[in-house]
Each structure stands twice: as C-alpha cells, then as structure tokens.
Predict the 3D structure of the following.
Amino acid sequence: MENCLRTRRKDLALTTQAVVIGAGPTGLTAALALSASGVEVAIAAPPYDAARLATDRRTTALLPGSIELLKNLGVWETCHQHGAPLAGVRIVDDRGGLLRAPEVLFSAQEVGLACFGVNIPNAALNAALHAKVSTAERLHWVPTSAVVAVEPGDDRVAVSLAEGHCLKGALAVAADGRASLARRAAGIATRAWSYGQTAIATTFLHARAHAFITTELHRRAGPLTTVPLPGDSSSLVWVEEPSVAAHLAALDKAGFLAELATRLQGLLGALSDVGPVAAYPLSGLSASCLAQNRIALVGETAHVLPPIGAQGLNLGLRDAAMLAECVAAAHARGEDIGGRTTLKAYHGARAADVLSRTLSVDLLNRSLLDDFLPVQALRGLGLHLLANVTPVRRMLMRGGLEVPGRLPRLMRPAMPPQRAGRLPLSP
Ligand SMILES: Cc1cc2nc3c(=O)[nH]c(=O)nc-3n(C[C@H](O)[C@H](O)[C@H](O)COP(=O)(O)OP(=O)(O)OC[C@H]3O[C@@H](n4cnc5c(N)ncnc54)[C@H](O)[C@@H]3O)c2cc1C
C-alpha cells in the first residue's frame, strides 16, 4: 500500500485527527468518507492481504444509498462490473405447515425503479475499497497485527498497537467488528444473543436464468436465499440448524449440489460449479449507544443482524457516511471532532435507523422459527395481503427502501434516481 505510515522505531507516537480501528468494509468506508470530508485519518489494522480477503465467500446486496456512497467515494467504478442488479425479490413460504402462504413477488418496476440494488461479491468490494484507500489523500494505513489498547482522554484518544507504537487523535472510529476492543474502551454496553442457526454461503452456476430475481425460501430452520450474480450464477445464503449446516459444509461438491437441488425444486434448473462453502454461526448484537468518550461505533461493533433482508452492511455503510457528515460539520465550525456535541449528533442521527432495522430483522427471523399457530397465521395473512393487495405491497417496498431519519449527503444521488427501464450497472 502506498499510504502506509511505515516505521521501524519502537514506541513511536503519531498524532492525527481520526484513527479508524479495523479494516473491514465499514472501517475502510468510514476512513474514505472521513478523509473525503477533509479530515486526516490513520487506519490501524492488519496489513492488506488479498489472498485472505478472497476467501470471503459472501456477497452483499447493496441498496441504492450504499451504491451512491461508493460512487461518491470513487470505489464503485472499480467493482460495479462484478455485480448484478436486483430487479425483484420473490418470497416463497416453504415452511411446510398447515397454513401455506402464497408466493409474493416484489418488483422494482412496480415502484418505478430499475432495481432495488446490486449484489456484489465481498471479495470484489473489499479489493476496490483497498485500492481506493491506497491512493486517497489525508489517509494513512498504519499496519499492525492488532490494536491492543484504546484509552480515551480529555482531548485525545490513544490507540496502542501490538508493535509498541501509539496513535493519537481527537476521534477513534471503532470498526473492529462484533468483539470490539474499542467499544469496551468507550464503556458502551451491549446486548448479545444467539439464534441457534448457521448460515452457509457460497456461489453456484445454474441452467435456468435468474432474471435478476432474488428468491427467499422461508423455511422452518431459516431462510434459503439465492441472489443473482452476473451471467447464470447466483450466490447462496442457506440458514440451517448448526448440525445440519455442519453436515452440508462437509459434503463434497456433488453431494452439496444434490442437497441444494432438492431444496430449490428446479427453480434455477440444473445446478453446477459450486464454489467453496463457508459457514457463519448467526448471532445478534445491539450496542446501548453509538458513541461515547471520543469513540464512535460503526458497522458490526454497533449492530449484528442475521442475513435476512440484506441489511447488515448497508446499515454499517450508513453509519460510516453519517459519521463523516457529523465530523465534517464539526470540523467546518472549528469544533472538536471527537467532542460530546459531535458524538451526540452522530448518535442522534443514526439511532432510529439502527434500532428499527435490528428489531424488524430479528422479528422476521424469529417469525420463521416460531411454530406457534397464531404466529404462523399472522405471517400467512401478511403474505396473503402482500400477494394480493397491490397498494400494501407497494407501501412495504417504499418503506423498505426508506431510511428513518436523514439520509447522509454522501448517500444521495448526484443525479435524480434512475427510473425503471435501464439497469444501473455503469459507474
Ligand atoms: C452469510 C452472510 C450474508 C450477508 N449478506 C449481507 C447482504 O447481502 N447485505 C448486507 O448489507 N449485509 C450482509 N451481511 C452482513 C455483512 O457481511 C456484515 O455486516 C459486514 O461484513 C460487517 O463488516 P464490518 O466492517 O462492520 O465488520 P468486519 O468485517 O467484522 O470487520 C472488522 C475488522 O476489524 C478487524 N479487527 C478486529 N479486531 C481488531 C483489533 N484488535 N485491531 C485491529 N483490527 C481488528 C478484523 O480483522 C476485521 O477486518 C451478511 C452476513 C453474513 C454472515
């Protein structure tokens, strides 16, 4: 990386304006958004490892605001070609219960849009983020095996690295994931829970075209979702009980494809070329506040959701964009970018969105697992309404795309939103 602040001296203290801890997709986006807002940023994280990042088997369905953010940060132009637009979402009740609900198709065209978003492999997104970070102004990567301590003070927060160096800034951005050390240093409490489910993620080829439709099979053990990728390929997120998921992950490719074909019941025709299979135990986490003591939380340090409805990273990218906006405003006014006023503005701007997504995704996931007949009757009634009453379906689609509170400026389109007709794959 060109922008690495490399040093061999032990116990060196470096001062900057903001220190981002962790270089997952949310941390990198936060660093780019902050530097684009005129702030000097250091990223404290393990060095870029292209081979390790390529082992991330997941894809992310990016919603329109996230795509605008990546366009505005100059990231989209180097990764959009790996993505496929999502023109519709089909929900199929596959719980096999007494009250089987009708299939529902949410079509982007029905609400005047070309697509709901774009599905992109995490490996391609992360590579594009790293490429941009390596050339961005005001941005320095300080490679470390790990951040080992974070100590907030009156006017600075100190971030200590395993190699003995210390980075000091007015603000630390905690992007070090669900087990965040920086969140603990901020004194922010969390509520965490487990779902007793594991998600299997991989990609595969199929003989029948996906027609850019995502299909969610709502099953007793959790959703099984196929999400379009370019050509006749799709990504898969298949949620199962942990023991079943372990069995599936251990199958050879032919065995896995046979199991998948049984579940998909011909939906995508003959299946082939399954990629490496990765398993992700599912859990939830919610932080009691989003910023405190010069430390702001973004992404999974603040909220962990099950992969239903493609919300997790989209929520994290909204954190990153809004934090940059609050920091830029404080910076422009000559105020302390890590001070109470800035952190309060960030928390206030993000709390409603984070809470409402966490609750709704949790409720949706639990409603699949619950065998209580009235719960299933309510689910079925909801799906009946969505299948048969167009205004209700349109209202839900518009609601799903809307963000409670203010959408960060970096997520707003420079041009009016694209209308139905052309799929937005160009940068
Ligand atoms: C199967 C699956 C499918 C998903 N699909 C979608 C989807 O379609 N749409 C969507 O929006 N979301 C989706 N998600 C959620 C999404 O993948 C996550 O929200 C996202 O990856 C979280 O990114 P992050 O940067 O917040 O955290 P992470 O990716 O966990 O990054 C944290 C980083 O911090 C580093 N770190 C940790 N500790 C330290 C330390 N002490 N010092 C320095 N660095 C440290 C780690 O090495 C890591 O690089 C999915 C999740 C799963 C499991």
User: Anything to note?
Assistant: The two ends are 24 Å apart (CA to CA).
